[in-house]
Amino acid sequence: MDFSFNEDQLLIADTADAFLTSASNSAQVRAAMSTELGYEPALWQQTTQELAWQLTHIPESEGGLGLGYVELCILFEKMGKHLCCSPFFSTVALSLNSLLLVAANDCAKSAIAAIAEQGERFALAYSGGGRLVGLDSITALYHDSDSYNGVCLTGDYHYVIDGHTASSFIVAAKNASNGQLGLFLVPKEKVDVAWTATMDQTRKLARVSIREAEVPASNILSCDSTTKGTFENVLNLACIALAAEQLGVAEQCLSQTVDYISERKQFGRAVGSFQAMKHKAADMMNRAEAARSAVYYAACIADEFLGGQPLGAELSEAASIAKAYCCDAAFFNAGMALQMYGGVGFTWEYDVHLYFKRAKAAQLTFGDSAYHRERIAQLVLEQIA
Amino acid sequence: MDFSFNEDQLLIADTADAFLTSASNSAQVRAAMSTELGYEPALWQQTTQELAWQLTHIPESEGGLGLGYVELCILFEKMGKHLCCSPFFSTVALSLNSLLLVAANDCAKSAIAAIAEQGERFALAYSGGGRLVGLDSITALYHDSDSYNGVCLTGDYHYVIDGHTASSFIVAAKNASNGQLGLFLVPKEKVDVAWTATMDQTRKLARVSIREAEVPASNILSCDSTTKGTFENVLNLACIALAAEQLGVAEQCLSQTVDYISERKQFGRAVGSFQAMKHKAADMMNRAEAARSAVYYAACIADEFLGGQPLGAELSEAASIAKAYCCDAAFFNAGMALQMYGGVGFTWEYDVHLYFKRAKAAQLTFGDSAYHRERIAQLVLEQIA
Amino acid sequence: MRLGFTQEDERFREQVSDWLADNLVGEFAKLKFRGGPGDEHMFFAERAAWEKQMASGGWIGIGWPEAYGGKACSLEQQVIFHEEYARAGGPGRVGHIGEGLTGPTLIAFGSEQQQRRFLPKILSGEELWCQGYSEPSAGSDLANIASKAAFYEDEGVWKINGQKVWTSLAHESDWCFVLARTDPASKGSRGLGFFLLELDQPGVEIRPITQLTGTSEFNEVFLDDAVCQADCLVGEAGQGWAVAMGLLGFERGVSTLGQQMLFQNELSEVIKIAKQNGAAEDPVIRQRIGDAHMGLKIMRYNSMRTLSANPGDGTLDRAALSYKLYWSSWHRNLGNLAMDVLGPDAELVEQQPYDLTRLQSLFLFTRSDTIYGGTNQIQRNIIAERALGLPKETRGKD
Amino acid sequence: MRLGFTQEDERFREQVSDWLADNLVGEFAKLKFRGGPGDEHMFFAERAAWEKQMASGGWIGIGWPEAYGGKACSLEQQVIFHEEYARAGGPGRVGHIGEGLTGPTLIAFGSEQQQRRFLPKILSGEELWCQGYSEPSAGSDLANIASKAAFYEDEGVWKINGQKVWTSLAHESDWCFVLARTDPASKGSRGLGFFLLELDQPGVEIRPITQLTGTSEFNEVFLDDAVCQADCLVGEAGQGWAVAMGLLGFERGVSTLGQQMLFQNELSEVIKIAKQNGAAEDPVIRQRIGDAHMGLKIMRYNSMRTLSANPGDGTLDRAALSYKLYWSSWHRNLGNLAMDVLGPDAELVEQQPYDLTRLQSLFLFTRSDTIYGGTNQIQRNIIAERALGLPKETRGKD
Fold it and tell me: How many domains does chain A contain in total?
């Protein structure tokens, strides 16, 4: 058992942090978030071409670096820390994971290559809107086509992360007659997309509409009894990546707040010398530390899962634990930061609100913490006789 | 609108407090709680004969003082504050209230007189045991007797407050054929009782067993379509009385803790000068104050209800609010007290644990706070279109 | 103890609600439920006109003594007024600082001349006020005022230099009351003056502060030789702290029940959404709805108790001291509940690029509730020291 | 990062579990899952015998260096030992203070003579130890020791006077290490001595403290000219604080995973009851069960991280610093959950008049978890100051 970063992982963390410190500073984040596009194309170019971050956990056989989910989570953590505005999450955590899990499929292989080599931006569309989560939220329908070899697909998709700037879509839909889930590759030409502006401006959402789209058989990623499980595991993996981002948020809120309260004076003392402040900071640290443990354990389990190892069976549990804990920790820490900054934290000028909004958005993405706690309870209640 | 005590009420509060300060001090509480009986007969004698507290809200027409539920709650608050060990709660908050709500009944009238004049001890038995609350917890059954004018009743009752020392019982049972609720008066001769020792020693519980008991028609308190509502209102009134006790607990935990941390020194300072301690004490005070508002509002509503006024319709809501809030406040404050006393609070010698145990017991009596919050939510969701 | 109001009070209630029903129409109709916290930047001109409308109905200063132009309404009637105002959706008042703070301060501490000069204009809705206490270095440590006021004998005026912050409505107000140091060598609460400062002058620059909502309700006010006439000092030079603190005593909680009416509107909106989108069937959300309702009810009971018990003589009242902490925490939780009830829809703004929905504004703006007017930390200190008698916080050595 | 253990470690695990399966039988069978916190008063004589059984198997001091009679097991193997011990229901150790605290302290700070005298008896399970730090006035302020030690040249002994408190197992132990003031004029952490004190002597009186559970695990120890031989002072007179603090550094968290195994047993019991009595169908209880499980899992991950990262050289590690606060809060919540799952049945004791059930003991005893070994308040101070570098708490003037 060795539950600490090795030298290579430490190097990845330092490099990513250094890069984002200069490429995703407050001014750059604010510039990117205020556009509809939502990211800086030059940054995307750098991360996918120069740094080739999207290759991280693609197997070497598919042209990737063959590293693991731990390494990927290191990147997500740093992106969260720097609030990096980028379609990296939608492309890698959602779409690439979907493709890797159906990798035997030729269609998936070429899509993986498009991401790996051209840095193409993908989005995953599944939810029909509302409070339902995951599989339950899918309302889009497909049916086998009479006129060609393939399916015909219709649906409205909400909350599609970076949907309005993706060039290709992985979409989920249910068979109109038997309800079986299918995952399909759809180029942007066949969909209508509209940006839906959000409270958290650092991550963009879109609405995607598909009307009687012809999806040829060659674009079917998965459409059998395994698809449901695949889709659920995609969301599990995405939850872990999101949790990693939120670890970065939690940690950054802590360190910025500690800096601020060490400087800010009231009553002739640094406010950080007041016990009420110190104890709050201690609580923030405890949450950040626990979040770190939860994320990296889940990332290790993701590697076990991707490698077909027995511990991979823990994926759902580890993902729910990481998602629920880290999102709550980030929101707690961001809320505390707002409180401890006092008035200035409430201004647009300081960055605290950006973290706070991001943290709330993350809580509401892929099911809130109550959802995941219930999911954990279900697993536990089944386990214990 | 005048939501403050009048002169008479202030006098009742002061008198009760002074009496219990000398009649229910720590040594006296510990002496009473360590017996199976659970109370000091001389104290019972004093409260029912000299002070005649049980007369408080009995109408003058029935030989009572004709005061209100507010006055009664003042007494319960002080009894909670002093952890008074007494069958007053079972006799007055549960049994007398049941009798008053069916007062037209002759059987009830004579039972009221027995309480009023002889200070007889009554207990209410209804729950068949387990986590179900109120009406849902009743498992005892009755059926009309073929051989005499009355019903025949069988049931096992759990958690009967002061059941082992009561001389009469009011018992709830459901009609074996149609499920309709009935309330019956049963003398102790017809039941088997056994003390069930409890973690909170300051309030005793018993198990009561009734096997094919003959209940003559003259002992039927209520047995028609109104009985269910009556029974629910008895529990509502009992919840308010319990909440009043817990207000006393919450307040006493606060004031004792403030005294202790003002005295106790560490690091060359009174520990009460540390912000962490001060802020906890402030949180305790806020809860005690809110608890006070909740109790006395509910007590006013109880008076409106007992007087047949329109605001009486708020009884369920006000009772659930008082029950949930005050029990949680008392438990919070008692837990804080334990923490703030440090090691000594953990000893048998100090009284903190007595309050802590009493508060936990109260939380679990008449439905826990989650139960009452759900009940409130139901009411609210019905109200708002 | 007695719930409910007298028949006379109920007639007064009717009078208020009738007037509001008759007047909150036409050009004013669109102001309904607008201009509250988080929305204070909206419809300013219209709300200023509404202030005059209120004045014409005689509804400003209803709690002031009759000798000063007020109606000397009882506490109950003031409560009723605020309740009915909120129920009718009366807009956020732009005159509330003048009515609630400046007026009572001048009545208690002002000269007869100051009273004659300023009180009528407040009652007529013609002059609007803002408050200038906080400074960048005087937040929680309010007495740490750095602004300086110097008296120029020759010109017969005070000149004030410094910076005020978190001044709401400054850009729309005519006057501001300002705490500034009259004794430059003093520290803390000694050596301060309480000034009435006209805002429309070269020495005053007002810059809006953009909040996390993207809107502006607060301002920075820069004072660069801002001129204040000699007779605009309230009380003596050096006694400003006593005046400022006296002012805090005037808030007797009559507006709290009105505030709670607004909270009820917000909670009802959240519950309606929950019923629409299915959240109301989620047992965890139901717990939170039950809790929110319970919390608001108890807030009301707390206020009723405070109003009944507090004779306004500065007596410490525990329920009153805990009110700020109580409502601000409750309101913050409501903001959070609103988002969680909405689920993923919570993220979608009203209109791009960044017009927030009412509930988003609530969610974000309630984060300031636990900061302004004394942070939760300061509130707990005050409670521990004043109500519970625990030892004072040790101060730094500066 | 790598989960799971090596094959060699897994073989070690098998060895441990086999030995436990073979030995935790017969007279020792009834000790299974007994003697833990809240139950430390039970079966003392049997557990003392078990300690010798452990010694015979060579399982005491497995982390000690070989030169001192230990096995020098790797961190992983120590973890495995604790896990298997807990899994098998190994009873609460009566020798853990000698093994975990006295031994490492003597190895680091003791004289060769002290090491030769005491270490073998610890390893053989023959001599049991308790610790004498806390005093009535030295709780959170541990350095505020009032006990005094004076050296009597003629007799060649130290005599100690004072009172120790919260000394667990004192009435069953042979020796106690005691902090006492060698310089009577000193204050705080200076001027202390670290003494090895034999308990069976006239100058030592031990009085059990009855806890809120009605049972006694802790004691008061009154020292009235308690005699300590000259060679039983560890380190120099006046340097006792450094010895005592060095001792704190020895806890490297190897026992935490074992502790968590006990927690898992407790949680599983609660869950079983929930399934039996219907609480498991209550969505609010389900949330809390999910939360408890999540919390315990993360506690495990935290420990794994601490164990992997902590080289035992005293490096500050954030996850390690937060461990006490984390587990004690979790455990307290579990106690509460247990009661709420049971509902009204939670009140019924095992046997009258006051034999508490296991879960009642858990509920009550976990209330001390957040106090002993540094209250939650002290833990937060330590974290804020050591890990986050925030300014030190101001001290009083005495």
Answer: 3
| Chain C residues near residue A353 by CB distance under 8 angstroms | 212, 364
**C112, C116, C118, C124: CA torsion to nearest 10:** 150
Looking up tokens 């009577």 gives D184
- Beta strand residue intervals within chain D, DSSP E: 129-132, 148-152, 157-165, 175-181, 192-198, 204-209, 218-229, 233-238
CATH of C252-387, picked from 3.90.280.10, 1.20.140.10, 3.30.70.270, 3.40.50.1950, is 1.20.140.10
pLDDT digits (tens, 9 = 90+) for B181-204: 999 999 999 999 999 999 999 999
What distance in Å separates the CA atoms of residue D387 and residue A279, rounded to the nearest whole number?
Answer: 12
**Residues 6 or more apart in contact with residue A351 via CB below 8 angstroms:** A26, A29, A83, A256
Tell me if the pTM is above 0.90: yes
What stretches of D88-187 show up as alpha helix (H) in DSSP? 96-97, 103-109, 112-123
Topology, domain C129-238 = Butyryl-CoA Dehydrogenase, subunit A; domain 2 (2.40.110)
User: Quick one: A236 and A145 in the same domain?
Assistant: no
Residue D253, amino acid: G
Domain span at residue B196?
123-222
**C134 chain-A contacts, CB cut-off 8 A:** 343
Closest CA–CA distance from residue D375 to any residue of chain B (Å):
8
Residue D251 designated active-site: yes
CA–CA separation, D215 vs D349, rounded Å?
14
Distance of CA C379 to the CA centre of its chain: 16
Summary mean pLDDT of chain B: 96
Nearest Cα neighbor of D9 from D75, D103, D98, D76 is: D76
Last residue of a domain, one of A205, A222, A239: A222
Query: Which residues 6+ apart lie within 8 Å of B259 measured at CB?
Result: none
ipTM over 0.90: yes
B265 and B372 housed in the same domain: yes
- Residue C291: pLDDT above 70? yes
Q: List all residues of chain C from 64 to 103 with a beta carbon under 8 Å from chain D.
A: none
Q: Which two tokens stand for residue C85?
A: 């105002």
Q: Which chains touch A (3 or more CB pairs under 8 A)?
A: B, C, D
**Band (D386; pLDDT cuts 50, 70, 90):** confident
A129 and C345 in contact by Cβ < 8 A?
Answer: yes
Domain ranges of chain C: 7-94, 129-238, 252-387
Could you tell me whether strands A168-175 and A181-187 are parallel, antiparallel, or unpaired per DSSP bridges? antiparallel
Instruction: Give the nearest partner residue to A197 out of C144, C352, C376, using CB atoms.
Output: C352
In this structure, the number of other CB atoms found within 10 A of the CB of residue B179 comes to 10
Tell me which chain B residues have a C-beta less than 8 angstroms from the C-beta of C391.
Answer: 262, 269-270, 272-273
Contact (CB<8Å) A2/D1: yes
Q: What is the CATH number of the domain that holds A315?
A: 1.20.140.10
pLDDT tens-digit readout, D221-238: 999 999 999 999 999 999
| pLDDT tens for each residue of C121-144 | 999 999 999 999 999 999 888 899
Closest-CA distance of chain D to residue C275, Å = 19
CATH number at D7-94: 1.10.540.10
Q: What share of chain A is helix, strand, coil (3-state, %, to 5)?
A: 60, 15, 25
